Amino acid sequence: MLVETQGIVEAPAQMSERERIIRAVIEEVRPNLKRDGGDCELVEIDGNKIMVKLAGACIFCKLASATLEGIQARMIEKLGEFVRLVPVAGAPKARH
Questions:
Q1: Pair 87, 58: CB distance under 8 Å
Q2: Which of 2, 4, 58, 88 is geometrically suited to a Cys-Cys bond with 54, CB 3.0 to 4.6 A?
Q3: What is the CATH number for 76?
């Protein structure tokens, strides 16, 4: 379960190793996206589907699909399993 505190979503201390890896990959790319005026946030993990929300300049960027493919490839490499990155609209929601 994620806990929202003053608009910041915090993960519980007992996060799975798989979720830690997923979050780490997203955090790896965020500085580059932010430099270009965009962002990417984890919304939900549902089995092999990982829902993310693109923000800022990433929303209308013609290269957004290539960016998502790169993030997905990195996750597959780090996890050692196939996952599918799915862009979603709307605010990140708390996972239960």
A1: no
A2: 58
A3: 3.30.300.130
